[in-house]
Sequence to fold (172 residues):
Amino acid sequence: MPEVTEANIQVICDQSENFIGSLTSIRHLSLCCLSSETPYPSGTTFPYLEHLELCTCSAGWANLLVCLLKDSPRLQYLKLKSQHPAHYNDPMLLWKEPTVVPECLTMHLEIMEWRQYEGTEPERNLAAYILANATCLKMATFLTRCRNKHHRMLRKLKKLKRISQTCQLLFD
Fold:
């Protein structure tokens, strides 16, 4: 049977659990999950996943991200973006900071790109967590739609603690 290494998945209902859970050999995943539930069975790991693009359109996307970080120990590239028009997106729910830092943050994550970054407090807290724990991070790029709030957001991001001595912050 051929091995699936790349998938672009949009989860609309809660019936995806077995399908996504069967993709443990995947290396590149683009995921949009409109459900607030984790779309794969508990205990599933993605040991080969290196590249993750996660849509930020649902209110629970940050908690899904925490699960994916925990379950993807070799993740090197993270892209957060909304694939939908701005009026469709739900406000981000408060996320639960993990009690244990995921292995991918301490050992592998090198690049993070966050598109449509709005600079809200929950987003800033999540960005702060990643920057404070991603020891191998080389580049963190934040792209925003709000040109009038752009400079204020940049100042706040620049003040965040970064554990990686080589991490470059890029803004657009």
Remarks:
- Residues 121-133 form the longest helix (13 residues).
- The mean pLDDT is 84.
- The two ends are 43 Å apart (CA to CA).
- The CA atoms of residues 73 and 104 lie 4 Å apart.
